[in-house]
Amino acid sequence: MPSPRTVTSGPELRSPRDPAELQTPARGARRASSGDAPSTHREDVRSSLGTLRRAFSRASQRAPGRAPEENRRSSRFPFRSPWRADQTQATAVPALAHGPDVPSRVEDGVSQPSSTGVGPEEPEAEAGKSVADLITERQLLAAFEQLRHLETQLVAEKASRTFEQDPTGFARRAMDVCLHYDGLAAEIGSIVRETLGPDGVDAAALAELAHVVRAEEEAHPAPPADSDFLLTPRRWRQHWEDAVRQSARERVQRAGAGAAPGVAEGSPGLAWLLAELGGLVRRDLQKVQLEVRPAYAAAGFPVWETYLRAFHGAVAQRLQELVHDARGCEDLYVLLDWAANVYGSPDFLGTPDLALPTEPLPPLLAPEVWARLESDYTSFLETKITSCFDGILQLEQSRWAASEASDVLQGRYHTPLSTDVHMLVAEHVKAAGAISADLEATTLRICARALGLFVPRFEKVFLESESVSEPHLGANINACEELRTSLLARFPGTFEELEKPLVAATCNFQKRLLQGLQRDVQPLFKVLCTKAWLTQDVLRPLMEKVVAFARHLEHVAPPWAQETLQEVHRYVVREYLVQALRPRERFRGVERLTGSQKMSLDAQAIGDTFQGLGSEATWLGQAILCVADILGETYKDDIRRHLETLIKSYPDIRRDHVLAILALRRLGRRRNQHLLQHAQDLLRAAAKAGGSGAAGGHVLFEEIEVPTSVDVLITCI
């Protein structure tokens, strides 16, 4: 058995246990067994060096991926060997500085403790601190220089065949070096993960970290030619980048972990969560730019780009998770809006100098995910907008039920209908436009389609209600006109299909407005052209109702107010002529002359009244006057002239109307036939010239039905 040799140079291996643990019986038993080192040495010699090297290499490669809680411990010797943890028997390990044939060492009467079963042997610096202590105290550069020295020494001893008789001893010492390299890498990762924590940025530690990474790259520029796991590049720069990404992921995942105010615990609102996420990313990247980046400046690390991409990737991952959990139209829009307008804003980081670049970074959401998100949003939006229109209709119905009078705003009858629709469309279109032009166009089409279905529903429900009145009808006419003009002007090319239903609804409201007036004044026409009419002013009550009705038209949009007033004017003239051409009583002699004068006065009164109300239907002024002139004309040859004036002014007059007018006079068979033939010639000439019975769209006599009476038959005979 060879005697132990004393070596006076090189670092000393120490046990990775605290001094208190050395006093335990188990520890003492291990020290007592150190005398069996020669037999243990003979067993180790028979081990396979290749197997050990592969195991140590795998352990070295796995170390950077260990869980964060294992990376740093408060113990002086934080690193444990995974290979030794599997051993079932204690084995004496030679000191890192010993020769291959030295199993143990006794110094100052204290035997060297075994290093198996707990962790790697501790290389100690000449100043008295072990590498583990230096790593724990974060003296990274000193720890690396010590490890580099030990690694170089171990490579030299291998080259000099010092370990030829003890390959296992070499493997164990090499493993200890590798594990301490891994421990140093773990400490680098720990420093990176703590950089953005609440304790602030340790600029000195970051600067030393950068120098250590650079020093390692210079020390291990390329893998060794003999594929040895010593002198292998540790790739600490890649490890640093991985640690930055891991730190960003952890911080982004913790964003919004607390419950939002007013929100149930465990289910924070999505808007609040995204606000928290944005605030965290903003604060962290500002800290990186202002505090972290300068600490790495001397080493030339791409700090800003690395952290920027790390946080961008972490935010993209978190947003992808939130997309799967999004529910409803509001959540989907919040996600789209945050991604497009908050995170993508040049002011996201608080200053233009820190704006997120748009070109180098990948999309926050993949194009197919973004498209699916927009599609889901538009599906929800279509249902929501339809529901909003239902709500508008219910509000209008509640106003009708409460018998609320229509307001007069800027001189016009007003209903909230137009305002509500404008706000609904503008709100959703503006919100969609803030996301993308395609989404804005889709939202416009949804709004146009929903409004096109809403208008006929609204019209039907209103006209069937018991709240139909002149003010409400006028307010709805104004609302439809506002929607037609403003929406078409603001969104050309999209709302054009709405013009037809809006105009149709407006015409129906106008028709109902006229029907109300007609019901009121129709009985008053029955007393016209009677003997009582000759002596009484029966036209005044009728015209008073017309004037009262026209006051409502003053609060209706001008184009529809004028059109309605002209329609009332035409209605009054037409109904007057109906009574004149179908008289209940026949006038002869003085009564006929008196009737002619009375009819002329009525025609003048009707014309003056409607002119005063603003009617532009001046073409109606000759109809009643011509009939009155024919009725009262004393010089019968001039009747021909009055007929010519009547037919030229109203080309829609028919032969039946001429017969009814001539029947009022009883002119005789020959004269009647002559006048009737002349009238037919004029009608044929007018038909050839105009191509239709109504010139300029004016219709009057065409709507007057003249039944065949005995007097008309006599006139024809």
From TrEMBL:
InterPro entries, sorted: EXOC3/Sec6 (IPR010326), EXOC3/Sec6_C (IPR042532)
One matching Pfam family: Sec6
Transmembrane segments: none
Chain residue ranges for the region called Disordered: 1-129
Protein family: Belongs to the SEC6 family.
Protein name: Exocyst complex component 3-like protein 4
Organism per entry: Ceratotherium simum simum
Gene responsible for this protein: LOC101395169
